[in-house]
């Protein structure tokens, strides 16, 4: 396994603790900084890795919301 890929896929506890809105807002900021340019290659890579972690956190929140909605629909259909 590629160690660099493993590092990018590990979500730090501080990101795991973020609400969806916090993770989304920081992700928007990271993307904006990357699009603006001017960062060194090393800083750009660090921003990209952080963005990947934030995007994974947002996807996790959205998947949880989908599961809750599906469960609520199934419950309502069963009544």
UniProtKB/TrEMBL annotation:
Gene Ontology annotations of biological process type: DNA catabolic process
Keyword match Cell wall biogenesis/degradation: no
Subcellular location: Cytoplasm
Name recorded for this polypeptide: Exodeoxyribonuclease 7 small subunit
Superkingdom of this protein's organism: Bacteria
Record-level Gene Ontology MF annotations: exodeoxyribonuclease VII activity
InterPro entries found in the cross-reference section: Exonuc_VII_S, Exonuc_VII_ssu_sf
Quaternary context: Heterooligomer composed of large and small subunits.
Cellular component annotations (GO), alphabetically ordered: cytosol; exodeoxyribonuclease VII complex
Broad class of where this protein is predominantly found: cytoplasm
Function field: Bidirectionally degrades single-stranded DNA into large acid-insoluble oligonucleotides, which are then degraded further into small acid-soluble oligonucleotides.
Alphabetical UniProt keywords: Cytoplasm, Exonuclease, Hydrolase, Nuclease
The protein's enzyme class: hydrolase
Name of a matching Pfam family: Exonuc_VII_S
Entry similarity comment: Belongs to the XseB family.
Matches recorded under NCBIfam families: PRK00977.1-3 (NF002139), xseB (TIGR01280)
Catalytic reaction(s) noted: Exonucleolytic cleavage in either 5'- to 3'- or 3'- to 5'-direction to yield nucleoside 5'-phosphates
SUPFAM superfamilies reported for this sequence: XseB-like
Gene3D superfamilies: Exonuclease VII, small subunit (1.10.287.1040)
Gene: xseB
Enzyme Commission code: 3.1.11.6
Species: Arthrobacter gengyunqii
Ranges annotated as spanning the membrane: none
Keyword Cytoplasm attributed: yes
PANTHER family: EXODEOXYRIBONUCLEASE 7 SMALL SUBUNIT
HAMAP family associated with the record: Exonuc_7_S (MF_00337)
């Amino acid at each position: 396994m590629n160690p660099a890929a493993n590092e990018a896929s590990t979500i730090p506890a501080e990101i795991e603790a973020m609400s969806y809105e916090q993770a989304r807002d920081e992700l928007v900021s990271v993307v904006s900084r990357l699009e603006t340019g001017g960062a060194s290659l090393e800083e750009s890579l660090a921003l990209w890795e952080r963005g990947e972690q934030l995007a994974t956190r947002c996807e996790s929140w959205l998947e949880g919301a989908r599961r809750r909605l599906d469960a609520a629909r199934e419950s309502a259909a069963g009544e």
